[in-house]
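Lecture notes, unit on binding sites. The following record was shown on slide 14. It pairs a sequence with nicotinamide-adenine-dinucleotide.
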Amino acid sequence: MQDYTGKAVLVTGAGGGIGRAAALAFAARGAAVACADIDAAAAGETAAQVEAAGGRALARAVDVRDESSNLALVEAAEAAFGRLDAAFLNAGILRRGGVMDTSPEDFDALIAVNLKGVYLGMRAVVPALRRAGGGAIVVTASSVALRADAALAGYSASKHGLIGLVQAAAGEMAPWGIRVNAICPGAVATGMVGIDTSPGSPLALLHPLGRVGQPSEIAELVTFIASDAAGFITGAALPIDGGLTALTSPRFRG
Ligand SMILES: NC(=O)c1ccc[n+]([C@@H]2O[C@H](COP(=O)([O-])OP(=O)(O)OC[C@H]3O[C@@H](n4cnc5c(N)ncnc54)[C@H](O)[C@@H]3O)[C@@H](O)[C@H]2O)c1
C-alpha cells in the first residue's frame, strides 16, 4: 500500500461514487484530503466518513466550471494542510444521446464540467503543486475516451478531449516535477449510471469480465498513479474497464 503520510490531496467530485472511494483510499494511506463537490452536503458526508475512519479531511463546495471557485478551493486546502501534493480532478456529469438527440445546451454542459472543469482545475492546482516541489494530477476520463459510444456523443467527446488535455499538460508540466495522467474506467456502480449494473445485466455483460467495476477498485488505481511508486508514468490514459476497450466482442463464442 502506498504511503501518503504528511501529504495532502485534493479530490473533486468527492461527494459520491469514485470520488468518495478515492478520498477514503487516500486517507487510509495517510493523506489529508480536501473533499470538494458542487453538492456541499455530500462533500461534508465524505469528509465525515474520512474522519470517522481516523483520517484528516476538509469539506468544501466547488463548482469546477468556475475559475474563482477552483482557486478558492486550492487556497482553502493549502491553508488547512500547508501544502498540496496531488489532485484527483474527477467531477463529471453524464448526459445521454447521440449527436442528433443531444441538445446544444446538454453538449455545452458536458464540455463545461467534464473538459473545461478539468482545465480550470489544473490551472488552480499547479501553482500549489509547484510550491510543494512537484506532484501528480489524475483525471477521470472514461472507456468512451478511447472508444466512443454512439449513444453518448457529447460525453464521449468531452472525455476524448480530456486525453488531449492530459497529454499536453504532461509535457508542459514534466519540467516542474508534475505528472499528469488519465484513468479510463468502464461502467462503475455509482449513482451516475442510473441503469441496472447487477451481474448478468446487459451493461455488466458488455465487459469481458462479465461485471461492472466497483468505486473501490478505481480508487486503488488512482492512489497508485498519484503516488511516487508510479514516478515514471505520465501522459498516460490507463484503461480500468474489465477488458471493454481491448476486445471487439465481449466473450469468445467459438
Ligand atoms: N460511473 C461510471 O460508470 C463512470 C465510468 C467512467 C467514468 N466515470 C467518471 O467518473 C467520474 C465520477 O463519477 P461517478 O461515477 O463517481 O458519479 P457521481 O455522480 O457519483 O460523481 C460525480 C460527482 O461530481 C459532482 N459534480 C457534478 N458537477 C460538478 C461541478 N460542476 N462541480 C463540482 N462537482 C460536480 C457531483 O455532485 C457528483 O458528486 C466522472 O467524471 C464520470 O464521468 C464514471
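Take-home: The first strand starts at residue 8 and ends at 12.
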